[in-house]
TrEMBL record:
<dbReference type="GO" id="GO:0016477">
    <property type="term" value="P:cell migration"/>
</dbReference>
<feature type="domain" description="Dedicator of cytokinesis N-terminal">
    <location>
        <begin position="2"/>
        <end position="201"/>
    </location>
</feature>
<dbReference type="InterPro" id="IPR032376">
    <property type="entry name" value="DOCK_N"/>
</dbReference>
<dbReference type="GO" id="GO:0007520">
    <property type="term" value="P:myoblast fusion"/>
</dbReference>
<dbReference type="InterPro" id="IPR042455">
    <property type="entry name" value="DOCK_N_sub1"/>
</dbReference>
<dbReference type="GO" id="GO:0007264">
    <property type="term" value="P:small GTPase-mediated signal transduction"/>
</dbReference>
<dbReference type="GO" id="GO:0005886">
    <property type="term" value="C:plasma membrane"/>
</dbReference>
<dbReference type="GO" id="GO:0005737">
    <property type="term" value="C:cytoplasm"/>
</dbReference>
<dbReference type="Pfam" id="PF16172">
    <property type="entry name" value="DOCK_N"/>
</dbReference>
<dbReference type="InterPro" id="IPR026791">
    <property type="entry name" value="DOCK"/>
</dbReference>
<protein>
    <submittedName>
        <fullName>DOCK2 protein</fullName>
    </submittedName>
</protein>
<dbReference type="GO" id="GO:0005085">
    <property type="term" value="F:guanyl-nucleotide exchange factor activity"/>
</dbReference>
<dbReference type="GO" id="GO:0031267">
    <property type="term" value="F:small GTPase binding"/>
</dbReference>
Amino acid sequence: RFQQVQSMMCDLMEWRSQLLSGTLPKDELKELKQKVTSKIDYGNKILKLDLIVRDEDGNILDPDNTSVISLFHAHEEATNKITERIKEETSKDQPDYASYSRMSSSPTHSLYVFVRNFVCRIGEDAELFMSLYDPQKLTIISENYLVRWGSKGFPKEIDMLNNLKVVFTDLGNKDLSRDKVYLVCQIVRVGRMDLKDSNSKKCTQGLRRPFGVAGN
């Protein structure tokens, strides 16, 4: 048990340094905070300490400003999450808790995407936003990868031709266990309000308009 807690403390110290670095994007920062609070709550449970209830942002609920019913539901939800976490941890094969290097934490996976071409008749510049999407939970599970595509059928940055590559990182076992994960591309047209508007006096420029979406 000591080695198990030692490994968890090393994980928390590593995550703390990442939080204090100030280099994480907003969504990754929020995800890491939830990861930290989840690890703390799990550690308190296996050490038979008091259960701490939190809000969606991971902040501790104030009993003076929270109703009894809300606290009860929060305790119930927190208990269910920790119970599921304990089942996941006990089902894993962890022969060596003393190995607390970064590789000993939950394994992560990556998805490599190479954009070779974009075929869609728009007539104006476009922005392509690519992300991973869970169709069951109706939520995006990654950051967006942005590609700016020109009206002539080439990337806006011509130097990026045949070099549009992205790696979606930090995909864990939870992501691999999802029933389906789609690679979704959202297309935003950048230019005139109306493609039929050819009058230069009325022509607007630089407007961003949703154009289409594709998934695979």
